[in-house]
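Contributing new records

If you add data, match the layout below exactly. Sequence lines come first and carry their own label; structure lines follow with theirs. Keep one chain per record. Anything else will be rejected by the validation script.
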Amino acid sequence: MAEKDEIPTGRVRRTAKVTQVVGSQGARYAGTRAANVTRSRERASERLDERHLEAAERMVDALGTMKGAAMKVGQLASFIDTDFLPPEYRELYQEKLATLRTSAPPMPWSKVKKVLDEDWEEPVESLFEDFEHDAAAAASIGQVHRAVLPDGRRVAVKIQYPGVARALRADLQNAGMILRMAKAIAPGLDAKAAAEELKERVLEELDYEYEGQNQRTFARAYRGHPFVLVPDVVSRLSTGRILVSEWVDGMSFEEVRELPQEERDRFGEIVYRFCFGSIYHLQHFNADAHPGNYLLMADGRVAFLDFGMTKQLDKEQIELEIAAVEAVLENDPERLRVALGDLGFLRRPKRVDAERLMAHVREVGGWYMEDREYTIDSEVVMRAIAAVSDPRSDFFDLMRRENVPANELMGRRMESGVLAVLGQLGATRNWMRIGREWWFGDQPATELGREEWAYFESRGQRRTRKFAARDV
């Protein structure tokens, strides 16, 4: 029998654990509703509140213990507003699930130290001046410990959970689970190709050496940037299961949400510029856009912390995407149909009504395709999500004829994640004007834009009417 602190790794056990939690809470919820018939209105409301709180806490406990892909579902649900929960309890579930982003249940030191002993030739005590045994943060695949190097540098040591590789592979062997995850990101996709793409990206997260390479690429590209920080990696101590990087202090996303609106708007613009702008500046972006990866530093910069799931794009694909955006901005449905056909989004382009296709694209991405100050709220987020995932949507029959190419899946995941983050902030900007800086070489639309373009131009990257990304 597995110990309490061990991660369940078998596919059957992991599927059963989720089913048990969902099933038991569903039965208890039904029992509460039945018993409420004989209770006073006030007492019935109290019991229902208690039942939802218990369900949320049990869900967090189960997903947190399971780690791996199952926990990632909980992280995603924590910051995407959803109509599938009762409106009066939506905030409760999101608040509880939010703990999976930054304070998931950690594993004890005795368990994770085995990984350090196996991967390092020298004992921990000789490599560090100080090493905290209590985890500073715990996530889906590993947990982070604070440490101090002999030269005084403070570092974050991310340690992969023992057994998590088997657990994650068990999740990915569960065809039903992986396809549901893929469809949650983009219904109407090429299911088989998308599942393979999702597997490849998720399994990359198990390789901390690969993540370290990605992080070094972004750290080099943004070194000295006026409002973005990517921590440097300590390569000599990093292995396939251990990643050591510069420690960063800052406010968590939950704390940022309590700031005045002007500061939340600025934070939202920085997230948007980093997540979307990296496509055009680097031809490389971070697909894991959940807010547990962001810290607001005391000097106003935002630190981006996790690079386990990134995606590189070729120049041709980016140019085709810009052509599709340009067709929307110029209100040319036929050009949009051709552009999306060239990108592989349409199986039979000539059979798709171009006007309805235009309306659908505006419903999903209108927030960054309208020339106005645009506030992102929960209604905007849910409208975009429903347009691609809800059978009740006016576009459902159109979605069933569309196809999300495998190489676009991570981009759509990033886009929906950023939109959800902006929705939690209630952020306002003219997102289209910012986008035009990248798409068409327009003048910077904001003060942050002026700072950013001065930075990239100092490194040899120029704004042009045609996309021309280059290494920086």
